[in-house]
Design a protein that fits this description.
Blueprint: H1 3-22, H2 25-30, H3 49-52, H4 60-81, H5 83-108, H6 119-132, E1 137-139, E2 146-148, H7 149-166, H8 174-193
Antiparallel strand pairs: 1-2
Helix pairs in contact: 1-4, 4-5, 4-6, 5-6, 5-8, 6-7, 6-8, 7-8
């Protein structure tokens, strides 16, 4: 496991354990609250929440899948771009995912739920993996069909878009996932325009 991936994983696990002790107070201040939502429902939006929300998770399954994906795909990207740029990339994906979620919530209005989880950063890593290793074969658990990474990432993105537009799987921040991919793609294009992906 590469250093930054390990540190992110340990930080998420540590915060998750702290959530079990502290209860909802951590989410009150560090989850990403909608712009239009004021207390008493939550602490309201604060700028730091665009980063801190990614280290909170809503249950064992939530953190398990996110950390498993980070463990599976993160090290290859960190080795490719270097630890410093990987850290920047992950944070950019997290922030762009959070901003996308805030915009969607503002347009839809009436939403009173905070956003938590590292999924925006994970989806950005998935995008980078699909671009860097498009022909690497992945075997999914369901369905158990091998497919190239580029196809897996494309299909996953389309599923998230469909779910977000149709409102499928309520309670999941589908547009935040897409926002993480968009932010990651924009940063990759910027790095490529500078002539190098590696720090």
């Amino acid at each position: 496991m590469t250093p930054v991936v390990r540190n992110i994983l340990l930080a998420c696990v540590a915060v998750f354990l702290l959530q079990q002790v502290a209860g909802p107070s951590l989410e009150y201040w560090f989850a990403l609250w909608p712009l239009d939502l004021a207390p008493p429902y939550g602490a309201g939006f604060h700028l730091w929440q665009l980063v801190t929300y990614a280290f909170l998770h809503g249950g064992f399954t939530h953190i398990l899948f996110n950390m498993f994906a980070l463990y599976m795909f993160g090290p290859d990207i960190e080795r490719l771009v270097g630890p410093r740029r990987f850290s920047v990339y992950f944070l950019v994906c997290v922030v762009s995912a959070g901003l996308t979620q805030l915009i969607v919530e503002h347009l839809e209005r009436g939403l009173a739920e905070p956003t938590i989880g590292a999924s925006g950063g994970i989806f950005g890593i998935l995008l980078a993996f699909g671009l860097a290793y498009p022909h690497r074969r992945l075997l999914l658990i369901f369905p158990p069909i091998p497919m190239p990474a580029w196809l897996f990432v494309t299909l996953y993105g389309l599923v998230e878009l469909y779910a977000g537009v149709t409102g499928t799987a309520a309670g999941v921040a589908h547009f935040a996932h897409l926002g993480g991919m968009i932010g990651g793609f924009a940063l990759i294009l910027y790095w490529r325009s500078r002539g190098s992906l590696r720090s």
